[in-house]
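hey can u check if this looks right to u? its 265 residues, i copy pasted from the old doc so theres a chance i mangled smth
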Amino acid sequence: MNELQKLLASFMNSSPASTTRTSTAFMKNPIAEPERAREDIAGFLSNAIATTSGTMPEDTEYGRAIVDMLKDYGNPMIREMTIDNANMVYRQEFKPNDKQKLMVKKWRESFGNQGRVRFSKSKYYDHEDDTFYEILPRPNYERKQDGNKNYPTRKESINIQKGNVDNLISELAHHVQFRDLVQKEKDYQSQTLYSEGIKYGDSSPKSKGVYGVPGTGEYEAHEEIEPQLMDELERRLDSYLFKDKSAMNVFGNKSAMNVEDLFKF
């Protein structure tokens, strides 16, 4: 086995490294015996929020704020995605480590400047544009679909990366767009989003595409509704955390959303 093969084997056989920033709840939720979170929501919270031993994420102020917010918006299903089960994926650049750079160098010595150097299932180097890429599940929203004789009823679903609160709020914006529409209006809205995507294109490093065009459904969702939802989550968090005014001293009179290590990253 040559040096390149050894490097490749070491990448493919090792677990991906992860850096996790965690936090613990400052105090218990004041609500006595709160309603248990649905299984999919509880699973998401366990990936999003770190707690002290014996405390369930849904029983923290952070967890309860998310649970209550989702409940007020109809409790859409939460589906956490991995590369293996994602219905959509995208790629983004990442900064390689020294070992990955060395692997590319050895590849070039053996095969020249061509092909892709794969480090794992989700990470690779592309000689075509001299870039290191990581493949990630792409957050998306699946609207509710009324059933018929050929298709069963499908509940609305927010499909996101594990424990990613930003993904949750981003796709909840689309849920807000659809939740009060009748079926024909939902069909029309879906077709409009699709047509606008074809016309203006997807986002890219050089352009926001359809997401940057005022008046489109994607612009409405992510530039208008999403910021309002993030503000709402901030207010909910503050209402729980700062119920006792002395808790403000812990944060230096800042909003909870601006405090480091609120969620896992």
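Helices lie at 3-13, 39-48, 61-72, 98-111, 165-178, 183-200, 217-241, 248-251.
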